[in-house]
């Protein structure tokens, strides 16, 4: 099925989601660098990446929701899309809390802020896989005659 929210023929959600995914994931890399090198600048960069990533996620979400609402009910794609979307809401919330906990001292984040970010990245890896399953395996947002009930790409059966 084709995406309902398109720009110049391409799905808007798929174009936008790379920004929050990249920013939020890379923020954890900068947190690690901050810890390894005891360099406050890395923690400050991580904070601003989180802010930008959360904003990017909030911008990308409505376009994903539009596409999800157009998937036929009682299909594997609809179920996976619901997990993908709900998981990404959780990821965004975890990073928003991490950013909030850092706001008073971005250069010296508390350990709990780092824990929220690490948990957010762990869940984002799963939701990114689910998004890939939707697009690559089930063809959601790709073409009109996609198989929205295809088995998992982890399944030995092939569609």
What does this structure look like?
The mean pLDDT is about 95. The protein has helices at about 10-15, 20-35, 40-70, 75-100, 110-135, and strands at about 5, 10. It is built from 5 helices and 2 strands. A hairpin with a 2-residue loop joins strand 1 (about 5) and strand 2 (about 10). The protein is elongated, with a radius of gyration of 17 Å. Strands 1-2 form a two-stranded antiparallel sheet. The two termini are about 15 Å apart. It has one domain (about 5-135). Helix 2 (about 20-35) runs antiparallel to helix 3 (about 40-70). By secondary structure, the chain is mainly alpha-helical.
Radius of gyration (Å)? 17 Å
Quickly count the domains. 1
Beta-strand share of residues: under 5%
Distance between the first and last residues' Cα: 16 Å
Strand order of the largest sheet: 1-2
Q: Biggest sheet, open or closed, and with what strands and sense?
A: 2 strands, antiparallel
| Strands, total number | 2
Shape: elongated
Helix and strand succession?
Answer: EEHHHHH
Secondary-structure class: mainly alpha
Structure summarized in a few sentences:
This protein is 69% helix and 3% strand. It has helices at residues 12-16, 18-37, 40-69, 76-102, 111-137; strands spanning 6-7, 10-11.
């Amino acid at each position: 099925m084709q995406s309902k929210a398109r720009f110049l023929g391409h799905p808007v959600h798929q174009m936008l989601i790379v920004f929050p995914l990249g920013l939020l994931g890379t923020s954890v890399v900068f947190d690690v660098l901050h810890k390894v090198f005891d360099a406050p600048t890395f923690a400050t960069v991580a904070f601003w990446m989180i802010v930008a990533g959360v904003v990017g996620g909030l911008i990308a979400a409505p376009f994903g929701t539009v596409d999800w609402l157009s998937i036929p009910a009682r299909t594997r794609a609809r179920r996976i899309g619901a997990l993908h979307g709900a998981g990404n809401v959780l990821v965004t919330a975890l990073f928003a809390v991490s950013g909030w906990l850092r706001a008073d001292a971005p250069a010296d984040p508390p350990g709990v802020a780092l824990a929220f970010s690490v948990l957010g990245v762990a869940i984002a890896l799963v939701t990114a896989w689910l998004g890939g399953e939707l697009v690559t395996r089930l063809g959601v947002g790709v073409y009109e005659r996609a198989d929205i009930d295809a088995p998992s790409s982890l399944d030995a059966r092939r569609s």
